[in-house]
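# step 3/5: fold
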Amino acid sequence: MNFARYWILLVCPLFAAADWPQFRGPAGDGHGSARNLPATWSETKNVAWKTAIPGKGWSSPVLVADKLYLTTAAPLDPGSASRGELSLRGLCLDAATGKILWDKEVFRQDAGAPAIHTKNSHASPTPLVTGGRLYVHFGHQGTACLDPAGNILWQNRKNAYEPVHGNGCSPILVDGLLIFSCDGATNPYVVALRAANGQEAWRFSRPGDPPKKFSFCTATLIEVDGQKQVICPAAGVINALDPASGREIWRVTTEGYSVIPKPIFGQGLVLLSTGYDAPEFVAIRPTGRGDVTNSHVAWTAQRGAPHTPSPLLVGDEVYLVSDKGVATCLDVKTGREHWQKRVVGNYSSSPVFADGKIYIQSEEGPAVVIAPSKEFTKLADAGFQERTLASYAVGDDCLFIRTEKNLYRVQGW
């Protein structure tokens, strides 16, 4: 097979090497081009700055032009959080100093909002920055576009749906369209909003009738034989859509639900987990049309498939980290297991690859740094003693790490 025909696409315009403009980085695959990153850190080691972040949010930080952006859900008064009243906000920080440059309310969440999972927040989707615009998303609460000073350019609250456990899917940008899933308790769908004004361009209703319909998966853009495809997994199905029209290109049916890990693409294969209860890790050839469940699934693996962390592809190996702390390395072409190793803690954050190292962040605070290799090779232990569910942003020579209460710049000098 000629793999030169297959490309994973940047879902934003080209950025400087230091930019990390969306969930999982410039190409949405967890890869950064940084050099001289630290292999270890702690509260007292390799911390350039630490800034307290108001409210609560598990959106990952993004970095563009030496500015950091993230979202949070802050109480209006000491008792408002218990009533469900929250200010849904966007923040901008100076990446060099950690100073908060602005902190603006985007939406107001009223009392009686649906309950969320204990591991979730009301500000979990990661922002996206491109073309001098900041796009923030709060799931069923709404989507908005801000300028670099934090002024709201447009808002869209028309995609309200009944969430289960809260929100989580982050938007991607494709040819002027913000694309994200709205997979709630009933009638799950994928929607595209025009980035210029927030108006709906198309909507795709999920096929099938799985018993549990909710999911939280961020889509991935690929190109196959000159045709762009948006890969959108959900409960019971993996849909590949035409980003211009929202029409389905192909689908694979599955048994999972509450799908969270973002798909990746390499060696001509779409790679992803199928969700709860017993996830499979699936490799699909994205060259078919219609229902390709029985014809285009190249291989599957059950051992170590994650419920939450996204997979990471480095060279010919794909690395998985399960929620319970089992790391696995598979051959991407065959699914053959090279190694499997338990690492400390539980995991929600997605691993990243930069400076020749793979960084794996636990929920409890400690992190593990390993080498990309067919043999398990731990390079270092690192981390803070503070709960951490967000994924990293990677700068030129630093990592930006969001914990439950703070944002850190970790740097090796």
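# step 4/5: annotate
The chain has one domain: 3-411.
# step 5/5: archive (pending)
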